Amino acid sequence: MKIDAAREAGTAVLRLAGRLDREWSEHLSHTLGTLLQDGVRSLELDLSEVTYVSTAATRVLAHWQEELAVLRGEVRLTAVQPALREMLATAGWDSRFDAPGGADSGLAALRQSSWYSRSGASTTSGQYQTSACEPAGTLSCRLHGRPDRLTQSTPAAGDATAVTIPGSGFGVGLGAIGGTWEDCRDRLGELVGVAGCIAYFPSDGARMADYVVGTEQRQPPAILASGVTCHGGFAKLVRFSTHPEAEAVPLSELAAICLEAAGGEMAGLVIAGETAGLSGAKLRRSPAATGGATVTFDLPAVRDWLSFAPEQTYSAATALIAGVVARKPTGPLAAHLRPLSETGIHGHLHAAVFSYRPLPQRTVELGDLVKGLFQNHELRDVLHLLRDDRGGAGVPESALLRGVGWVGPITQLT
Questions:
Q1: 393 CB burial (10 A radius; 0-12, 13-18, 19+)
Q2: pLDDT in tens, 195-214
Q3: Are 48 and 172 in a shared domain?
Q4: pTM for this predicted structure
Q5: Which among 62, 93, 113 is the end of a domain?
Q6: How many domains does the chain have?
Q7: Which structural domain range is residue 72 located in?
């Protein structure tokens, strides 16, 4: 048996030759699993030179058909010989036989894909595809609290805001799940909420992140001591994958692409991505805890306040990232954002980190995807994504392998 594979972006063409028996079906399954983990969501199997298919092989094909269907992908069989059709049909493939054409025609179709790579020194690691989501969609953004005062005074009830995250919105910041300041003040931590779901990492000594999944009738309440919330519509959908010559897509590059797609100087975004590694931190202690001290970011005392890894973490995970990015922000917004790169792009981005599972690359409803992450994956962490600007001694910035982002221009800021 021979298996030759060719791929481009999220599509792969496999040309098989020989007998697809039980042993080779396991090799095929391993190959398909590797392609899936590498971001492939559309598979074409050219069977023009296959002389035999066992029942074990049909089960493998049926399994990967189901896996790709969950990810809104597809598996297509082409150039199937008449002798193989009856056995394959028993596995549900009778309606999925394509006309002969083989791998060459499949590769020709791949080369007509609309994925593009950016040119320029700072944007060479990813391949991107943009499409309309809500063409007239815009976001209204509200700022909460004064993050620039955290090192000067202890947050008080007057600095906090009670918020909910509707299905059409998101929020990030320093907060906790709960309805009152008294209930939340001792456990304020990194918080991210998207499409009615909220996750945060309590700073009261908890060892695990917590979360609540909302419904259309009820969104979970939260308290933000500082942060941003946005609601409205996302104008663009941005799909991305790693360029074949790169190892991963830097977060700053992706943020710049999203800003460009939004067509403005400020944008809100939600990204679901498969990680290459994350650079982030979370609070160890609530700055508003009873009897607490003022936050300091000076060494060595900062180690009592922040948990920050000396290297990238979560190299094989699924991340839900949300926040606001802007090009050279001014005014009150500037206090909430930090540099993502040396190119003038700033952002405030939090990530809910989940156990790994391949993400769909086709159009998918944001609410469905987010609820699926919380319901079907293990929530592992919540991080404030940061850029380490210490040069060679610093931690490389967060980077992703592939995923999809929802982006909207911010047209109102309060």
A1: exposed
A2: 999 999 999 989 999 999 98
A3: no
A4: 0.76
A5: 113
A6: 2
A7: 2-113
